Amino acid sequence: GTATETKALEEKCTSREICDKYYDLHTKIYKWFQLEFDFFGRTSTQKQTEIAQDIFWKLRKRNLIFNQSVEQLYCDICEQ
To answer: How crowded is residue 13: how many other Cβ atoms within 10 Å of its Cβ?
Structure first.
């Protein structure tokens, strides 16, 4: 998302590197607090992609997906 991309630009690395960094950090914090999850995953896995696509296609089949224009921030200089 935007926050990840902004942080990656700030730290001069890729979005993936930011996600890896904070996934590792959060894992250590949860372990320190003795918090446990049945599954502590991430959105970049193949399984997550399959789940998201399955949801999308089910919604589309029921005509619940539509186009909409949304006004967002945009930089003409860096085209992002």
So the answer is: 13
